[in-house]
Amino acid sequence: MGSDREEQSLSFEFGVYTFGDLTNDPHSGRPINAKQRLEEIVAAAQLAEEVGLDVFGLGEHHTPNFAVTAPPVVLAAIARHTKRIKLTSATTVLSTADPVRLYEDFATLDLLSDGRAEIIAGRGAMAFLDTYSLFGYELADYDELFQEKIGLLLHINENERLSWNGRFRPELIEAGVAPRPLGGKLPLWIGVGRTLESAERAGRLGTGLTFAQLSGDPSRLKPLADAYRAAGKAAGYTPEQLPIAICGHGYIAPTPRQALDEYFPYHANYFEHIMQKRNPAERLSREEFELSTGASFALAVGSPEQIVEKILYQHEQIGHSRYILQLDIGGVPYAGVARSIELLATKVMPVVRRELNQATTVGKTDGSLR
């Protein structure tokens, strides 16, 4: 396992992502409108690039609670205000999309951004499955839709002209799909929650693997990461072709107490109004919230030092090479988002990279790479 961990520590990437959720402020009760939200998203992406982060992502939901329903459109706007940062979906609900049109959209984004576009494809979060009925699909076809469409998307990525036949879209006969991305292919990742079969599928297909790790102990993902790498190796892919990313919720402040105090009202707001956990028995208490931010748990709320500790713990378990945080759930004001982005880039990122590179150097010396 040595060579893949070595490469990962030397090229560990950091980023931020958002779904653009729309909620009333838990303190003032004031709503945020979609226009303001989108403007703040563009500003956050600009800041992320300015402070040196590597990736900016946009998730996708199709309800009135979210400002981002068309990630490639918003990412194209961001592309005109940035020059270096990678621009990815996080996640595209591929099961309810047309792979041909999706590829056209992101290939166009890739050209506009000078080769910075990526796609993270998934089946859709179980809490937001209304997307299926909205676009005329049956939830009963949940896995079959994704299986067919990821196959077609990968086929398009490899072939400018193709013939194809499936169950859920019209046949393609020597069809040309254009434009083509700047580098010839788009980087493709598969988004996975906690399903072993999905992780193995990503390995067999040779895509990147992105874990949505919003709660719990990341050690639970280790069997999935191992299965992904094993399936990829069996399919003939090298470790460098099998990157792993972790996405999660977080908030960073100068001190642990400040982070907890500022973030908790918005975290609770998100679960009450977006996740519809309005029954008092389902609501997360302050005590439960604080426990969920511990070093061995996924929720990344705390001081920069605590976030460093959390990422290093996760890397010890999973060996990932990319870490992306959602910092704005529940209506967190832009000022808090901006400060978190700056702390992530200036206080967390350099320490994590230094620690991982030192561990790599030690491993080279004594042959005990993690």
Automatic annotation (TrEMBL):
Keywords: Monooxygenase, Oxidoreductase. Residues 13-317 form the Luciferase-like domain. Transmembrane segments: none annotated. Pfam families: Bac_luciferase. GO terms for cellular component: cytosol. One of its GO terms (molecular function) is monooxygenase activity. This is LLM class flavin-dependent oxidoreductase. The lineage of its organism: Bacteria, Bacillati, Bacillota, Bacilli, Bacillales.
